[in-house]
């Protein structure tokens, strides 16, 4: 067995072990915590919110999300729905006003993307000097009625940034949406519960997050990458703030079931994430060491842990290499250790996925659909190399 083969094999094993160990730890810590959600605090009852909805040509859905937001259980005089109609060429703005929202129309030929739309909405809220905090909700979402009350309770308790659970609205549409429901339940719910238990940041997930204006004055919103949500969550961590997790509230968004549209969307998300891995990991590690910050350390680890499809592919390749080495050098003990590592890592991934299924609410159909997961992994990895669609913020195709 050559030195190069040994180094390559143990590199695969180390990457798999670190990622899978992290996932296993979060899985074991993902029990639901008892949280008081009563609004006994006088301060919480008086908080004002601007709910910002960035929208780009969303005429099909803008009325639905505004209606859902206006139906939340919070005094109507203490919140506003603010739709940012960003470079729209349809009647999104007209329909949003008719539904009862405040509308900010933004046009810019060069500075385009969700991050710029959010900056515009946040600036509108800041200039108005009316709200105490902003909440961001995507245009394709429906929200739980306790969305604002869950944020208010935590703000009254000292939090400045909150993320509610982000799930799938139409989980039973297809096998793909059910698998997405399982994936988001693992990534958003199981991992966020564990990180909240550890008093580190749950991160910002792009939809259903809240931040106070007091914090925005200290850490202005300047996130314009393809993964603007992760970027802003990291910036908050670098400045010493963690994002609290509100498990009892949720936003549920439409997930595309068309494979071509899903491939384009997935490619944008993951290219943005990989760019942040290159740009932010070293800064987070340095901040963790300098400030002795568990928040920054966890954000760095979370950034380095690749999406589940890549972790599963890593384990599969490690298993194949270990089996090959056993046949090549039957007497080599390293092959046995590699094989054991692959089996343990595979078990960690399985437990993590099953926990996601348990929390997803997809039922027996979701469990059956997990048999398609290997094909989903192949599709997802292949989509990163096959697709050539533009990477800027473009409107996801909707069905009427």
Could you provide a short overview of the structure?
This protein has helices at about 5-30, 40-45, 60-70, 90-100, 115-130, 145-155, 175-195, 215-220, 230-240, 260-290, 295-305, 310-330, 335-360, 365-370, 375-385, and strands at about 50-55, 80-85, 100-105, 135, 140-145, 160-170, 210, 245-255.
Descriptive account of the structure:
With 400 residues, this protein is of the alpha/beta class. The chain has two domains: 3-29 and 303-386; 42-280, Alpha-Beta Complex (Spore Coat Polysaccharide Biosynthesis Protein SpsA, Chain A). Helices cover 56% and strands 12% of the residues. Helix 1 packs across helix 12 (308-328). Strand 2 (79-86), helix 4 (92-99) and strand 3 (102-106) form a beta-alpha-beta unit. It has an eight-stranded mixed β-sheet, with helices on both faces. The protein has helices spanning 3-28, 42-45, 62-70, 92-99, 114-128, 147-156, 175-197, 213-218, 228-238, 259-291, 294-304, 308-328, 333-360, 363-369, 373-386; strands spanning 49-55, 79-86, 102-106, 133-136, 141-143, 161-168, 209-212, 244-253.
